[in-house]
User: What shape does this take?
Amino acid sequence: MTKWKLLALIALAAPALLAGCGESMACTTEVTAGSGTFKAVAQGTRPQRELERDSLSSACKQLCAASKPEASNSEACISRCSVDAVAGKIGVRTTCAKGAR
Assistant: This one.
């Protein structure tokens, strides 16, 4: 492949690869358990999956703080909550929207 063909290929592929870069997004997660409903929002330009994970972790941190104040920062409690939410043992709802401020 000549260098001109390579440059043309890169020029054609660059817009597709950069689409969505820098676009702000917000993900909101609500975790519902016996002690109530806990809501958290994660915003930024990171990939949607990372924002979903961050908002779930923040909502689980709130749930842990409400159920066991001494365990509010416990990684074990937050991890257990996240796993239970993904497994469907506790209620969880996550929505994401582009263009968040």
